[in-house]
Amino acid sequence: MKRLANNAVAVFVVVIVLLLIIPLSPFMLDVMIIINIAVSMMILLISMNIKEPLEFSIFPSLLLVTTLFRIGINVSSTKNILQNQGQAGAVIKSMGDFVLQGNVIVGFVVFIIIVLVQFIVITKGAERVAEVAARFNLDAMPGKQMAIDADLSAGLINEQEAKERRGKIQREADFYGAMDGATKIVKGDAVMSIIITAVNLIGGSVIGLVQSQMELTQVLQVYSIATVGDGLVSQIPALLISTATGMIVTRAVSEGSLNTDVTKQFLAQPRAIIMTGAVLMVLLLVPGMPKIPLALGALSLIMLGYRLHKRMEEGSEFIDAPESIPEAMPDLPEEEYFRDINNIYSLIEVEPIEMEFGYSLIPLIDETTGGKMIDRIVIFRRQFAQEMGFVVPSVRLRDSANLNTNQYVVKVRGEEVAKGEILVDHYLALEPSEPGGSIDGIETLEPAYGIPSKWILPENREMAEVFGYTVIDPLSVMITHLSETIRQHAYELLNRKETMQLLENIKQQAPELVEEVVPGIISYGNFQKILVRLLKEGIPIKDMETILETIADSTVPGEDIYSVTEKIRGALKRTITRKFCEGGQLRVVTLDSELEKELVASLAKSEGGAYLAVRPEVMQSLLAQLGEEVKKFQELSQEAVVLTSQVIRAHLYQLLEQFYPSVHVLAFNEIAGNVQIQAIDNITM
């Protein structure tokens, strides 16, 4: 039984082939027709409820099987009609009687209309959509691959997710290619139905007149019922399958099921609903118009639009309580509430990280209207923790009347550190170095990386991808900017409380190590400073056990935290190498030996520690050459890395970060031995 279930589809296909050869009794033909209608209806409903085409990836093969099944039923019904004087089962007879209703001409007209609608409108339209979708999907593959690489570089996804998305893109291309061919089957099936209908009517009439010696009116009555009934029981499932085909190939830009998308997108436009109601009210002035239906329709639409508009206005306050009034305050007058001095402290609290945005951006954040911002932040927090070993605090989201409707700002410790502006109803197209063509749009700069871009309309998205642009949706633009801002300022978010939490977490695996190091060898404050210095230079602190063991094994009493941090970096060389290495190669800029000697000789000491007291002309030359090297790294889509000796690494970084904060300075002892170092240039005196 289990083996039969595992091969059910193969058995079904064999049965379909037998239908073409073995004649069926009218009863079995009725069963097959009912199965055909049920399967077709099921396929249509599935196509309406899926969120993306790949959820129904078997559809092209299923289309071939159902078409073959339908042709098998047609052949069997034709045999019964021609051999049994039009008797081909109860389903065909009842369907013919229902449509004809005693009038052969009207019945045939209705049947022909159904056939032509399926053949000319639905089938031909689905065929064209599938052809265009297949071509555009194939042409857009390079742009989609670039978008995945951009998300991977931004840290929004990991290697596994990037691999899955690349595989999905390949499956989509294969799927649309298969759909392009499968729609030809639907078109052929529609043509075949017309031919079979003609054969049934003409062949049945000849048999009735010649062999059965029936009257012409009787022949037309008998065979017209059978022909129309057979055509309908064939065309109704074919119509359902054709509609499902059109549904599948037009689901490319949908985010939910058809029911969900239609409901959400219609109800998100209350003004359009109100205006439609107003137009119906104007039609009441036209003489002869039915007053009652128009009035009911107009009032219903206006009331529905007004309620939706009020609900959207109320939903705009969903994210946060007003800044100046805590949540508990509505129970008391403002003066009475703040009479208690303890309540004033709530006004001076500073959030670790917060994001404010204009009114137009609320739909991207509001979960009640389908906003995905919070989910994306949760995903980023997980990925950042896996990569850097640090859990980003909760991001407070709030709308602000002080911003333009399309603006947003990111604040760290209450101060603005980043700002951007996006168009919710557009896509951002990142301009390639050599675009394949020009596309209309609003010129701008991508907020996270400063890449020249254009805001384009949704209908231009496919064409932009064909021209080589990397197209990003508005929410991804905003979350990418937020994530990059958090990466740059992660060291500011690591406070004493978070440090204690990290130590408590590692204490579950190595309690003795934690107790020995903190506070035995180093204080909590100094340990926090070490982690902050690592995060500031983009070094992951995930391997906390190695960090603690390095402190325990190599720290000398009274040693400053700068020296301890350099030892930890040496112990984390595999982590550092993995972060900056690509394809087994590490591209770097090196310093000339004379320049290094000059820098070592310029080391000076103060109460705050050692620093580089570089001569002005040497400093100017160093910064000018480094600026040119940074441009080369940008062309390679890679972060700039300067490789120098361990003696001056930390001091050189402190010198350069105020001019080039994105430049990383590494020492030779921080590079793993299995990596090939490629020096793209050498900075000289």
Automatic annotation (TrEMBL):
Keywords: Bacterial flagellum biogenesis, Bacterial flagellum protein export, Cell membrane, Cell projection, Cilium, Flagellum, Membrane, Protein transport, Transmembrane, Transmembrane helix, Transport. It is found in: Cell membrane. It is a multi-pass membrane protein. The chain crosses the membrane at residues 7-25, 31-49, 56-73, 104-122, 190-212, 232-254, 266-286. It comes from the Bacteria. Required for formation of the rod structure of the flagellar apparatus. Together with FliI and FliH, may constitute the export apparatus of flagellin. NCBIfam families: FlhA. Belongs to the FHIPEP (flagella/HR/invasion proteins export pore) family. This is Flagellar biosynthesis protein FlhA. It comes from Ohessyouella blattaphilus. The lineage of its organism: Bacteria, Bacillati, Bacillota, Clostridia, Lachnospirales. The gene is flhA.
